[in-house]
Protein: Tetratricopeptide repeat protein
Amino acid sequence: MVFSLREGARKVTLETLSVEESLALLREHLGAARVDAEPRTARALVDHCARLPLALRVLAERLNELPDLPLSTIAAELSAEDERLDALGVTGDELSDVRAVFSASYSALQDEASGLFRSLGVYPGDDFTPAGCAVAAGLRPSRARRLLEQLAAASLVQRLRHDRYRMHDLLRVYAAERFRTEEPEGREAAVIERLGGWYLRSSREAVRVILPNFRFVPLEGYERGDAPEFGSPADAVAWFAAERDGIVQTLRAALEQRLDDLAWRLPATAYPLFEYGWHWSDWREIHLIGLEAARAAGSRYGEARNMVGLGDAEWSRDEIATALDVYEAALAGAREAGDGWTEGFALRQLGELRWERDRDPQAEALLWEATHVFHRAGERRGRGMALLSLAAYERDEGRTGAAEEHVRAAIALFTEIADTWTAAWAGCKLAAVLSAAGRFDEAVAEYEAATAVFEEARHLEGVAVARSGAGRALAAADRPEDARTQLTAALDILESMEDPRAAQVEAEIADLG
Structure:
């Protein structure tokens, strides 16, 4: 990215600097002692200036006029976005006024390009695609792409790679300033609603490819509009990896704009993608937002759908007591709303967790109740999941024959509905039962088959679970070196995901000697 910077009486053009180059520029103009006396503050100043040479030079000129001013004082001023451009201006000197330089480039734009630039000021997320920009600005994708290239040529956006752009923080502040000055009232909410609707439809399509039998919430007014098509689970995972931050930030903006109906439907639709990638922190946040929005909208159905997802997120964080409370609330809400899908999963999760934590004798009854609720709701995948939980219960009780019967019944259900990914999970459950019965070679074969499915779908948690299970079966079969290979591969994945199960796997590797 390039901007004009005054150097004596002439103007030169410089690329955006690295952090260290930016600090060096400040040291050159302020003196190393002043910069190094407040190193963390100096780095914050660099961030606030977006590492743009012009902004850093203006900042240095201002600080040189105030030699006794602590860097922390100006850093606090720059931290407020609505004051940042004022703080980086020198009255009467347009070459040293950041807003004036941006305004010159902005004024040269044609109407459509300037409209897109303004929309980017309120666009949630740190980077964006032509497809997302087209939705936000109400353009055709091909037109949005051409306009983004015009903005890139004017140094108002930066092209990161094919189909991905970003705008530096200072330019975003300026674009938002222009948006709120020139656009009519209510236009920001319209941008967020269009973009949120696009994420809602797109997430639905991504989840459908991975979990073809997931029970979606109705779109209710957000059906119309474009959405990407995904040829495989790997394509859906790649899209989500690129757009996850945008989804979260759009959801925050939707709540801020009080687009409550959108703000509870989006997390209830997209959360399998967060679970799939084990993004438990974002996963938890989206449901807290969705729960607040559903309550504001007066939707008990929306509350229940978000609470069951929130319970799953709390479970993933090993917050078992909290998860149990949330599932109880989800169960009550689902029954009030007449939502059999959520009722069944709340019962299943309650039964499995109560057994896992306390060996609660009521757990089996909860799991059987879940199978009946799913059956009445016509939810075959949910019924299969409840059978898997019953299999784990039977296995723990030493009844491996009954456990195997439940798992094979679940696999038959998943096969009927062509749910390959869930069938692979069931394969891991079958392997655990076979291992408990001492049939280690059969167990390892099931784990390896599941690993192949998860690797093709780029599902890291699944790969880690399957490999760790295979490692345990191999250890029990007195094949320690093969076990070490599998457990080490699982540990690498779990550590990369900051998964609490990593400690257990690490201990199992140590036990191999």
Observations:
- The longest helix spans residues 187-210.
- The first strand starts at residue 2 and ends at 7.
- The CA atoms of residues 20 and 43 lie 9 Å apart.
- The chain has a mean pLDDT of 90.
